[in-house]
Design brief:
Elements (H helix, E strand, L loop, with lengths): L4 E9 L5 E10 L4 E5 L6 H8 L7 E6 L2 E2 L4 H7 E4 L11 H11 L6 H10 L15 H13 L5 E5 L7 H16 L3 E5 L3 H7 L2 E6 L2 E7 H8 L1 E8 L16 E2 L5 E7 L5 H11 L4 E8 L2 H12 L1
Parallel strand pairs: 3-8, 3-9, 6-7, 7-8
Antiparallel strand pairs: 1-2, 1-4, 4-5, 9-10, 11-13, 11-14, 12-13
């Protein structure tokens, strides 16, 4: 099946000469959740803005369900919902009217039952008659999501959707995102909260300096680039790693009582060899634990290599 969004050789150079995107290629599959990670100024928002028809590209092509975002703007825009970073709403309008108007603006017939469903799912139903200026920042962000969902888009872009939202509200939003994916909506998420990508994404893309460094299945990425550590708390302190263990790469990690062994996630069998060699060297441990690299560790390493 063809991807729902296809991006080829996409570039964007602003009037001041800044190159925001440098030949980005990306296919977004139907019904997936793709998380785009990158530091400020990496090109995330520019990429989203071009796909949504808000910013014109300098070069390249973007197809949304087979339609060019420049030539077939009306068609592609009707397929896309966008939740921007900025809290831009009419402060003197009610929540209900704000969401209802968004549906009508995109040419959809009135459907108060559907609007109620959205507001209930986003825990906004009891706020439906409140004016926007009466809401907290987190609630306003939920209204932005409701506005984007009001016209039933097939693709939803969430640009830093949980910025300024407390942990409980953030987790509620993750549940909403999961329900949308189950309903067949394709979701592209940009975030600074890497635990969001780790929690809900199917694939992860890392962008930095206008270049897409990689796009990979989340679990595959963790397996390929993730590292594990075996941490051994020793029964008695040692001053140096014994010569008989030197070839294993064991290190004394800031303590004479702790040995650390780094290994690839697919080489867990090596642990038995390490423990056996320690016994032969007469080194005993009283406790052991393991730690696996997080997605944040991988992200930091990738961006650091590109910097």
């Amino acid at each position: 099946m063809a991807p729902i969004v296809s991006i080829r050789d996409l570039t964007k150079t602003y009037a001041n000469g800044f190159k925001a995107l440098k030949g980005v290629n990306l296919d977004i599959e139907r019904g997936e959740i793709l998380a785009l990670l990158g530091p400020n100024g990496a090109g995330k928002t520019t990429l989203i803005s071009i796909v949504c028809g808000i910013v014109n590209p300098s070069g390249g092509e973007v197809l949304v369900d087979g339609h060019d975002v420049v030539k077939d703007f009306r068609v592609t825009r009707s397929l896309i919902g966008l939740v921007p970073q900025e809290l831009t709403t009419d402060q003197f309008e009610t929540v209900w009217n704000t969401v209802r108007f968004s549906r009508g603006l995109h040419g959809c017939k009135p459907d108060p039952v559907y609007i109620e469903k959205i507001l209930r799912e986003l825990s906004l139903w009891d706020k439906r008659d409140n004016m926007m200026r009466q809401l907290s920042g987190g609630m306003k962000r939920r209204v932005l999501i409701a506005k984007a969902l009001a016209y039933e888009p097939r693709i939803l872009f969430l640009d830093e959707p949980t910025a300024g939202v407390d942990v409980n509200l953030r987790k509620d939003m993750w549940k909403v995102v999961e329900r949308l994916r189950a309903a067949g909506v394709t979701i592209i998420l940009t975030t600074h909260y890497i635990e969001e990508a780790e929690e809900i994404a199917d694939r992860v893309g890392v962008i930095n300096g206008g270049e897409l460094l990689l796009v990979e299945d989340k679990n595959t990425l963790m397996k390929k680039l993730g590292r594990k550590q075996l941490i051994l708390e020793l029964a008695e302190p040692i001053d140096t790693v014994p010569t008989g263990l030197a070839d294993l790469g064991l290190e004394l990690n800031g303590s004479r009582n702790r040995l650390v062994y780094d290994y690839d996630a697919d080489k867990e069998h090596a642990i038995a060899a390490v423990l056996s060699r320690m016994v032969k060297e007469g080194i005993h441990f009283r406790d052991l634990s393991t730690r696996q690299s997080s997605l944040e560790d991988i992200f930091v390493a990738l961006v650091g290599e590109k910097a």
